[in-house]
Amino acid sequence: MTWWILAMPPALRRVAHGGLLVMVLGAAFPARLIAQWRVEAWFGDAWNLPTELTLKQQGEPDIHIDADWSTRPWSPTWYYSGRLAHWSGDAGWGAEYMHHKLYLDNLPQQDVTHFRITNGVNHIIAQRLWRRRGWELSAGAGPTLVVPITIVRGKRYGERKGVFGSRYELGGATLHGSIARRLKLIPYTYGSLTAKGTLSYLDVPIAGGRATTMNYALHLQYGLSLQSRP
After folding, report:
1. Cα–Cα distance list, 229 to 81, 135, 153 (Å)
2. DSSP character at residue 14
3. What residues pair up with 165 in beta bridges, in sequence order?
4. How buried is 60 (Cβ within 10 angstroms: 0-12 exposed, 13-18 middle, 19+ buried)?
5. Within this chain, do residues 58 and 157 fall inside the same structural domain, yes or no?
6. What band does 20 get if pLDDT is binned at 50, 70 and 90?
7. Residues 4 and 77 in one domain
8. In terms of residue numbers, what domain contains 16?
């Protein structure tokens, strides 16, 4: 203990001791270990593998389609994603909302005249986050809310029978993984380039029945990341 601390009144001496403790802890634990909050948002596009789509209607034979899917990120609704994350050192937790969209491109000429899930395929994902050599990784899972708009055998579905009387219905679940790189733009603000993969099981309502399919999608996204600490 230095002489100038000993010469202080008792109250100031306690403050000085506390300041020294903070300095010691700051030296022992690098600044990157301090907790950090982030708000992130992305736009982009997604590429979907072909999958089998099965449609079941009461009193009718099942319809099986080798479905080709597209996302069409800007029309009529936007494709986007957002995340709230909490980091501590090189690990963290996140909650992401991804507004994915699916259009059936190879519509059969007769029985299925309209099939899209465009408001959309809404993934709500709890994530574990890691940072490795400048790359940021995530893995997660969660439920999927869907807003299907379909016409099957002349019967249209697009009703408000979902959560709290909305058009958002529980329609499946998803697994998620991502890898991202960030670039500092200004203090507290980074650009973000992200590749994400989702594997989803979808079970959506149609008029008089259900439609089921898998969705395997690669998402390439760009956006901004705002953080609470430099």
Report:
1. 22, 19, 56
2. H
3. none
4. middle
5. yes
6. very low
7. no
8. 1-31
148 class by beta-carbon count within 10 Å (0-12 exposed, 13-18 middle, 19+ buried): buried
Residue at 51: amino acid letter? T
Rounded Cα distance between 67 and 213, Å, is: 9
Tens of pLDDT, residue by residue over 59-102, are 999 999 999 999 999 988 999 999 999 999 999 999 999 999 99
CA nearest 215: which of 167, 175, 178? 175
Domain count, the chain: 2
Look up residue 43 and give its two tokens.
Answer: 């736009």
Residue that is written with structure tokens 């999608």 in the block: 217
Report the candidate in 210, 122, 203, 139 with the shortest Cα–Cα distance to residue 175. 139
> Which of 146, 104, 102, 103 shows the shortest CA–CA distance to 123?
146
Indicate which CATH number applies to the domain containing 107. 2.40.160
Give tens-digit pLDDT for 22-36: 344 444 445 445 689
